[in-house]
């Protein structure tokens, strides 16, 4: 047997920038002109965002002389499919988009995940920029390069790790968010306080009224710190080999609760309950103090997120869903717990009886 | 505006090994056991290779105690679609394949490209190994990490750059190849002699009878040198930013000729004519000597590949196809030409009248 070594060792420089501002779409346009030359630009957005911001942004870029088009698809998680990805691909081919073109993902998590996925596989990848319009996308899904589409068998089953060239976060977009959409982002922000910075958690405790009032100055600060925490985790473990899983704090149970509600419950609300449950498990496992758990529950409640399981969601439906996820993952479903506020760790698994007890205590 | 830098600079060590041997599937099994532990293994193959080699290989791996399954799809370029990729994905989900599993692509270019593509997007990537069974896949498509599926609008329009964990080249597989399939690989081998090593070209000239007889010792040497040349190019320019395009020598016109034949002409034969035409253009452009061009044509003819355009293929159909590709690429269709045998360069474009002249001279 003969052996030939293929050396693809290399230094990859894939750094990019998150730019945060308020109502700065003119400046975004100028930065795109200056830093991201391309033969064609395509804004990809959904039917909600298109009317609110897409068409204006298209005009702004055209006024700068850029050759830009806008593609939209129906808003909602139901569009995060391979069918939509293929429909977008066909439109991109019609527009003559090639590897020297640039896609602009303008929207929430669905738009970002789907556009990123298409960008990563279209002609073996074209560059793209994230322009997240929801609080959740701004503090979470636009950062870190996870792209995906759903399959009938489950969420995010096909996807890639593919980084955007830049992320522009305009706080202006938040003004049109529904309360549920806004709270989806708030839940992720609380998570950052719990998994990384006790000081950030304390700031959130102090600023509950300003957060609820969507105070612009405070939001800018909170979004910046959230982005710094998320990017810090991603820098250490881009492809989720281990450490990046701490970002799933509250999400294992959160997803189970969301699924048990047949996705009628907003993601942020489900994650809020998942975080309280994870805090409860952390106490029962001898790590977190009961006082810390109470602080967590209090902050979550004060922010307008639920702290008890809604009536329609049965404990057994949640446990069933967890069992299903467990089966998928092999025997160990990794569970993120807290040693203290700001100090998470990944636990190999949690007893069913303990889960039952904690969920029982969370019944409304 | 606030700016946060996301630093994804890193040293990527993605080296892997090409192992070449004859009838060494037992050893391949042992190397997989030793070097590629996984919770599940799935051989992906096509309906031709499955009966010839797939089921035997499955038994060999099972005898070693590995948890392994085999998935097959219909043989042929027609299967290189997103539909097949999605069907494979469904089967992988049923089998419980996750990021700790390993796919084994056993087959020719279609199997390798498709399996690599699925591996690159399934749950945001699972590792895979290439086991190329055709000469073309062994010397060309299994090396370099290009994966893809075709769309109705064109070939390889969706895909990724995604490297296998290892490539096992077993010469035993070549014994069941049809002449056309074998010649597909021979054409690529001639290409390596033209774009990289004059010494290799001379070896091919000397060993025509042994190549035609599929002499095992010689083939082993020729495959090894071809793999070294291909991997050398890929190491310099993995994602085809520029240099890697020299691998397209003979392929721009080759693809046009293949398309003009409605894909009735084997790829290798079309590439052979494309190489002769590119050599002719190189002479007319004042680079290659006529004597060198004649040596190229002579070698290609002696190896059993065509040196004249077949009757059914019109010059104008080929030119039309070139014009179409040119439109797709923007104004400059890069054309790989030769300064000398072994010294290629990328030319920005070729005059239509020169193309016409060269194609005219190649009419049978």
Keywords:
14 helices; homodimer; 2 domains; alpha/beta; 364 residues; Rossmann fold; Dehydroquinate synthase-like, alpha domain; 6-stranded parallel sheet; 49% helix
Concise structural overview:
The structure is a homodimer of 364-residue chains. Chain A has helices at 25-35, 47-63, 82-94, 109-121, 135-141, 179-195, 198-206, 208-212, 216-236, 251-260, 267-284, 290-302, 315-328, 352-361; strands at 2-6, 10-12, 16-21, 41-46, 68-73, 102-107, 128-132, 146-151, 154-161, 166-170, 335-340, 343-347.
Radius of gyration of chain A: 21 Å
Oligomer: homodimer
Strand content of chain A: 15-25%
Helix % of chain A is 40-55%
Strand adjacency order, main sheet of chain A: 3-10-7-6-4-5
CATH class of the largest domain in chain A: Mainly Alpha
The global form of chain A is globular
Can you say what the CATH homologous superfamily of the largest domain in chain A is? Dehydroquinate synthase-like - alpha domain
List unreliable stretches of 5+ residues of chain A: none
Largest sheet of chain A: 6 strands, parallel
Q: How many domains is the backbone of chain A divided into?
A: 2
- Average of pLDDT of chain A: 93
Would you give the CATH topology of the largest domain in chain A? Answer: Dehydroquinate synthase-like, alpha domain
Counted beta strands of chain A: 12
Order of helices and strands of chain A: EEEHEHEHEHEHEEEHHHHHHHHEEH
Number of helices of chain A: 14
């Amino acid at each position: 047997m003969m052996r030939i070594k293929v050396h693809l060792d290399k230094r990859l420089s894939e750094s990019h920038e998150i730019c945060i501002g308020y109502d700065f779409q003119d400046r975004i346009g100028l930065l795109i002109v200056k830093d991201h030359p391309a033969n064609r630009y395509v804004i990809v957005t959904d039917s909600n965002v298109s009317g609110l911001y897409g068409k204006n942004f298209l005009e702004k870029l055209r006024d700068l002389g850029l050759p830009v088009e806008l593609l939209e698809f129906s808003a909602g998680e139901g569009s995060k499919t391979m069918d939509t990805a293929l429909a977008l691909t066909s439109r991109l081919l019609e527009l003559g988009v090639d590897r020297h073109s640039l896609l602009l993902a303008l929207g929430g998590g669905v738009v970002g995940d789907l556009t990123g996925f298409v960008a990563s596989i279209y002609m073996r990848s074209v560059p793209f920029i994230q322009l997240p319009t929801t609080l959740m996308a701004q503090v979470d899904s636009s950062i870190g390069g996870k792209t995906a589409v759903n399959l009938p068998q489950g969420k995010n089953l096909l996807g890639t790790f593919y980084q955007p060239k830049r992320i522009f976060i305009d706080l202006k977009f938040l003004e049109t968010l529904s309360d549920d959409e806004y709270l989806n982002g708030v839940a992720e922000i609380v998570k950052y306080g719990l998994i990384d910075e006790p000081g950030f958690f304390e700031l959130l405790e102090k600023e509950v009224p300003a957060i609820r009032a969507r105070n612009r100055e405070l939001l800018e600060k909170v979004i910046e710190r959230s982005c710094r925490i998320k990017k810090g985790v991603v820098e250490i473990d881009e492809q989720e080999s281990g450490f990046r899983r701490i970002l799933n704090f509250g999400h294992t149970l959160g997803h189970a609760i969301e699924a048990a509600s047949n996705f009628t419950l907003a993601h942020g609300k489900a994650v809020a309950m998942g975080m309280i449950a994870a805090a409860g498990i952390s106490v029962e496992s001898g790590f977190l103090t009961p006082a810390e758990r109470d602080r967590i529950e209090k902050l979550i409640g004060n922010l307008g997120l639920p702290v008890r399981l809604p009536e329609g969601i049965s404990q057994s439906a949640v446990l069933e869903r967890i069992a299903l996820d467990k089966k998928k993952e092999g025997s160990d479903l990794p569970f993120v717990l807290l040693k203290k506020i700001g100090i998470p760790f990944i636990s190999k698994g949690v007893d069913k009886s303990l889960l039952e007890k904690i969920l029982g205590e969370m019944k409304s």
